[in-house]
Amino acid sequence: MKLTLEIWRQEDAASKGAMQTYEIDEVSEDMSFLEMLDVLNEQLNSQGDEPIAFDSDCREGICGMCGLMINGEAHGPEVTTTCQLHMRSFKDGDTITIEPWRASAFPVMKDLCVDRGSLDRMIQQGGYISVNTGSAPEAHSVPVPRDHAVRAFTAAACISCGACVAACPNGSAQLFVGAKITHLGELPQGQPERDQRVVDMVAQHDHEGFGGCTNIGQCTAACPKEIPLDVISQLNKDLRTALRHGL
Amino acid sequence: MTDMPDTTLTSHPSHDAPADGSDDAMGYYTPGEPLVDRKAPDGPIDERWNTRKFEARLVNPANRRKLSVIIVGTGLAGGSAAATLGEAGYRVKSFCYQDSPRRAHSVAAQGGINAAKNYKEDGDSVHRLFFDTVKGGDYRSRESNVYRLAEVSTSIIDQCVAQGVPFAREYGGLLDNRSFGGVQVSRTFYARGQTGQQLLIGAYQAMERQVHAGTVEEFTRHEMLELVVVDGRARGIIARNMVTGSVETHLADVVVIASGGYGNVFYLSTNAMGSNTTATWRAYRKGAYMANPCYTQIHPTCIPVSGSHQSKLTLMSESLRNDGRIWVPKNQADCTKDPRDIAEKDRDYYLERIYPAFGNLVPRDIASRAAKYVCDEGRGVGPEVEGARRGVYLDFADAMDRLGEPAIREKYGNLFDMYARITGENPYDVPMRIYPAVHYVMGGLWVDYDLQSTIPGLFVTGEANFSDHGANRLGASALMQGLADGYFVLPHTIRDYLSDGPFEVVPEDHPAVVESLAAVEERIRHFMTAKGTRSVDSYHRELGNIMWEYCGMERSEDGLKKAIDLIRTLKDDFYRNVRVLGHDQSLNQSLEKAGRVADFIELGELMCIDALNRRESCGGHFRTESSTEDGEALRHDDLYAYVAAWEFTGDEEPPVLHKEDLVYTAIEMKQRSYK
Predict the structure, then answer these.
(1) Which of A75, A91, A110 finishes a domain?
(2) Quick one: which of A44, B90, B554, B595 has the fewest CB in 10 Å?
(3) Where in this chain does the entry annotate a coiled-coil region (chain A) (predicted)?
(4) Whole-angstrom Cα distance, residue A54 to residue B274?
(5) pLDDT of residue B612
(6) In the beta sheet, which residues pair with residue B441?
(7) A110, A138, A169: which is the final residue of a domain?
(8) Residue A133 shares a structural domain with residue A231
(9) How far apart are CA B561 and CA B28, in angstroms?
(10) Smallest Cα–Cα separation from B165: which of A209, A139, A17, A89?
């Protein structure tokens, strides 16, 4: 198939960017979206034009490195990561717009690459259980009810891609924070630090410039791992509880 | 069965290696002194690790903050080490090329992690895990290291559970286990099909906690491009900030490389796009020996290549072989037909035919090689790519008749969905297509029992080292090794080295630092000014084709010699004709790839030399000159029961081969048979 691509080009963080138009031919429906961009980059390289910078690593939907706004949707039209989106979701003659994640907490570094360090910095504020190596008790000493383990896993499946933020009109990362709060809060091991965790992570969330949640739900709709919206309710509940405890 | 095509696995002549030991690689290398690991204590195998931990000197807690550690890589091996050394109070600098430590490719491991907990009371033990791992590695690993791996495996599970890793659990709230990779006990812990992700998040969170505590400083989007060796000790790295393009010097008392494997030397593999050999290869060029580089693992159940645009391959859990039947058409003419229209009598269930005892469950290397043979004969299925159809059917029709579709959906639903997403075909209706792909490398930098390389002060952990998996890795053992090294082994062994520190401060204008920095800048300058015509990717793809063809599942003397010539020609052309656009002082992905491909090309040559030297079929690899009368792999313990450790001596000089003899005291060497 033949496609017209409107792609965001930006030299670096300090420069102003703009959309540019590219034509690409002989796109096979078996290509992944990123392989289509690889082909475009080979084309650009042979013409002497600098290839388009975009992030990806595992290309199997689990590392969270890739992420593009495709026709205005985070990761494009399917519920999956950009790397797992295939060209059979498009048709001959389509025009596709491709932009980087749009959020003030994710500054653009070049073309389609953004800086998501803010997500790591939120984890640094308590998105963990404090247990030094070697000090752990026997694994079977604390049984975990299966439904708690399942809910913890569902929340822990977050890949930190940032699609929730990019999809949110407020640029909120509450689905991301809620997922971590739920993952660790469902487990007995996560209880001792539960109150402090939510207070500190939320403070960092606001400090990074993420917006507030207004229950629109675009985050969960865009999430390639289908993290449920109720992790945000859990976040709010845990925050209320922590504040009542005087934190 | 009279209309069976004349195909068996004996399509290649069988030769035994000459009794005096052949020297296929003569002229490609220089024989060197034998190599011995002096760090593993003597004595009974189950006491060696305790002895070493006791003998390894301690570092006073107050001194630890004066000692600095550089760790390259943030996967299971690097992230766990950064967290643990940070907790101990050392000053850690952690580097990764991704934008976050949590993206390292350990994240993609699906299956699980082994541990000798014996929660199922099914006869498992440390000794049995040790035994299975050595046997799985086809008796080419070092027994002291493997025993220690099995020993610490149980602590890994305790640690991960305490961190909040949500392993699968039973209704009573206790941990669930499954049997994995053909072993007879259930010792594999798992978190759905995302075990690697969950373990990595555990290590990552532990590391981020230390970032918060101020003991670990993280450098994301930084790539190590050179090792700095001062007065014979590893003292730092040269790294490029991949966002600004600035080339930085980072110095420390000790350097740890945990940068993963080099499977991308094949271009197409299940590795991440950025997985590379540069950290390990640069260390090799600075004097660290590279051990058994030709040992690669090829996984039989991957989704086949769909076109020349293919950028990577996707693995599907080999548990699929429990219920799927593998076949190809008997007649080439049927290869383009809809498989559902091919009559039962026209199908060749070749694994069931050749290996009636194990059928579709033969080990990975045998299943992989058999698929290659039937496709080489022209009986492959699926799209034609570059003149060949490379795929075989994995058919669930019988299983669906027997168990019903809901049962299959329950067991394999996520894998079927993944397959459908990638191929656009519905595997509930049409048989899946699979083909082998490079998945893991057992070879890597040589390390002693302390995980220290031949350069003092350079430690190597996880897939980047060679030590624990021999010639083939057992399923669910990669995650175990990465975490064993980082959480429980390295922190003890590195303290023995660090107890001599802090070492004399290295000034940034030290000649060794200046030289390393200049070498990196010169390499970058070369790529930016080469002004050639071919893209980096085109060279990478060509290298991959050579490696896959001649140094993949099956190797021969002639093929490997041809590959070495082709690689040398490719290298020459690459340096003259590569085109890298853009600027070096900015984010430049072509430049990043150029450096990696340059190192892959050199590594590819060494892999071929190593494979040429090893005239035996062993573990994951098969030499056509070394097979039994019925075409099966034939190992030569009399000639090759050693680790081949290669020393770099200069670009124009052949590498020097040092042999470390493998001695087994706790286990007897045996030949495999699956007929």
Answers:
(1) A110
(2) A44
(3) none
(4) 13
(5) 97
(6) B296
(7) A110
(8) yes
(9) 10
(10) A139
User: What percent of chain A has a predicted confidence (pLDDT) above 90?
Assistant: 99
**pLDDT (tens digit, 9 = 90+) per residue, B1-41?**
333 333 333 333 334 444 445 689 999 999 999 999 999 99
Under CATH, which number does the domain B299-439 receive?
3.90.700.10
pLDDT > 70: percent of chain B: 96
Q: Measured between CB atoms, does A146 come within 8 Å of chain B?
A: yes
Taking CB atoms and an 8 Å cut-off, how many pairs form between chains A and B? 221
Nearest residue to B436 via CA among B296, B257, B323, B625? B296
Domain boundaries, given as residue ranges, for chain B: 299-439
Same domain, A94 and A139: no
Which pLDDT value is given to residue B386?
87
Q: What pLDDT band is residue B364 in, cutting at 50, 70 and 90?
A: confident
Q: Which of B585, B589, B590, B592 to mutate to test the interface with A (most CBs of A within 10 A)?
A: B589
Is the Cβ pair B100, A160 closer than 8 Å?
yes
- What CATH number does residue A75 fall under? 3.10.20.30
Q: How far is residue B316's CA from residue B297's CA, in Å, rounded to a whole number? A: 15
| Predicted pLDDT at B17 | 43
Q: What is the count of structural domains for chain A?
A: 2
Contact B394, B301 (CB under 8 A): yes
Active site residue B169: no
Q: Best interface-test mutation with A: which of B151, B165, B310 has the largest number of A CBs within 10 A?
A: B165
Q: Which of helix, strand or coil describes residue B437? A: strand
A124 and A99 housed in the same domain: no
Q: What angle do CA B209, B212, B213 make, to 5 degrees?
A: 90
pLDDT tens figures, B450-477: 999 999 999 999 999 998 999 998 888 9
**Apex CA B29: angle with CA B27 and CA B34, to 5°?**
135
Distance CA B277, CA B259 (A): 8
**Other Cβ atoms closer than 10 A to B525:** 11
CA pair distance B513, B247, nearest whole angstrom: 12
Among B621, B599, B523, CA closest to B265: B599
Which CATH number belongs to the domain containing residue A157 in this structure? 1.10.1060.10
Query: Is residue A68 domain-shared with residue A150, that is, in the same domain?
Result: no
Scan residues 1-40 of A and list those with Cβ closer than 8 Å to B.
11-12, 28-32, 34-36, 38-39
Taking every pair of C-alpha atoms in chain A, what is the biggest distance, in angstroms?
64
b/e map of B631-653 (b: 16 or more CB within 10 Å)? Answer: bbbbbbbebbbbbbbbbbeeeee
Task: Tell if the CB–CB gap between A62 and B201 is shorter than 8 Å.
Answer: no
CA distances from A191 to A142, B68, B81, B161, B449 (A): 13, 34, 26, 14, 39
* Calpha distance B215→B102 (Å, rounded): 18
Nearest to A144 among B80, B117, B169 (CB): B169
Residue written as token pair 């046997």: B135
- Asked if A60 and A124 sit in the same domain, the reply is no
Domain interval for residue A89: 3-110
List chain B residues with CB under 8 Å of A123.
204-205, 208
ipTM, two decimals, is 0.98
Q: What is the mean pLDDT of residues B162-180?
A: 94
Q: CA distances (Å), A170 to each of A82, A103, A126, A215, A218, in order?
A: 22, 8, 24, 10, 10
Say yes or no: A104 and A121 in one domain. Answer: no
Please report, as a single letter, which amino acid is at residue A103.
A
User: Does A224 lie in the same domain as A135?
Assistant: yes
The DSSP code for B507 is P
Chain A residues closer than 8 Å to B160 by CB: 139
Among B48, B233, B364, B596, which one carries the catalytic annotation? B364
Residues A124 and A46 occupy one common structural domain: no
For residues B40 and B182, what is the distance between their CA atoms, to the nearest angstrom? 30
Average pLDDT (B340-366) is 92
